[in-house]
């Protein structure tokens, strides 16, 4: 090798300590090294030391590379530090999107009503991954999923067309607030609201609907069998909002 004269003191020290660093890394990788962590306590006057065995780099890589492991670690944290179920579902479906779709469990995850149900769904994914032959593709379920996705695309198209009309209307009327009409009756009814409205008289029901949900099809939510006009209906056909309902671009903290 060439002379070290051209190197600075810091660089020389790094080269000198290289062998020692490599030896320590080797020990960590083999799981042979232990280190101590001092733990202080308000009730103790002296520090206690406990031996800890570090995880190997291979173990760390294996765990970080598994979305199921990551999801289960997240659930363990949620059990210790609870957050809203809606937030849990949001994050779990982001972590395990591919697996949930692969095993037709995305809708089950979105409709989960407890942490235990979420955990059970993750366990099913793990079982299918370990024993692929145990998974049976459900053709009817896939048809239902595609029908739901197609309906969502239609509603998104109708929504964009409606927004364009309302923006043009506000512009024609020279309103200062260009989105004035977009906010009128835009609220998606909740499951609780739909149940409540079904018990009301027609006039009262219609008045409340127009006040907050006039952009949405009342027949779709309240009539037996839903809206008879289906695709030809000018109003939005969007499922009532439940505790787990959210759009793909939602940002959910937690």
From TrEMBL:
Keyword Protease among record annotations: no
Domain of life: Eukaryota
InterPro entries according to UniProt: Znf_CCCH
Ranges annotated as C3H1-type zinc finger: 211-240
Occurrences of domain C3H1-type (ranges): 211-240
Keyword Cell inner membrane: no
Coiled coil: none
Entry's Gene Ontology molecular function annotations: zinc ion binding
UniProt entry keywords in alphabetical sequence: Metal-binding, Zinc, Zinc-finger
Name used for this protein in its record: C3H1-type domain-containing protein
């Amino acid at each position: 090798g060439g002379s070290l004269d051209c190197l600075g003191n810091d660089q020389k020290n790094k080269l000198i300590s290289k062998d020692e660093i490599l030896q320590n890394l080797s020990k960590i990788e083999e799981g042979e090294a232990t280190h101590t962590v001092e733990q202080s306590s308000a009730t103790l006057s002296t520090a206690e030391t406990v031996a800890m065995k570090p995880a190997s780099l291979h173990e760390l890589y294996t765990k970080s590379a598994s979305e199921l492991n990551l999801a289960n670690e997240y659930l363990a944290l949620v059990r210790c530090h609870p957050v809203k179920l809606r937030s849990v579902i949001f994050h779990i479906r982001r972590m395990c999107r591919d697996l949930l779709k692969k095993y037709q469990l995305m809708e089950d995850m979105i409709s989960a009503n407890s942490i235990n149900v979420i955990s059970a769904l993750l366990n099913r994914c793990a079982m299918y991954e370990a024993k692929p032959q145990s998974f049976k593709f459900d053709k009817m379920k896939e048809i239902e999923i595609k029908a739901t996705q197609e309906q969502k695309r239609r509603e998104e198209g109708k929504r964009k067309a409606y927004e364009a009309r309302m923006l043009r209307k506000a512009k024609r009327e020279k309103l200062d607030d260009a989105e004035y009409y977009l906010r009128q009756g835009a609220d998606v009814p909740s499951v609780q609201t739909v149940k409540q409205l079904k018990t009301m008289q027609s006039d009262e029901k219609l008045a409340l609907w127009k006040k907050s949900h006039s952009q949405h099809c009342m027949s779709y939510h309240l009539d037996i069998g839903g809206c008879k006009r289906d695709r030809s209906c000018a109003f939005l056909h969007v499922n009532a909002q439940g505790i787990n309902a959210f759009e793909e671009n939602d940002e959910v903290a937690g």
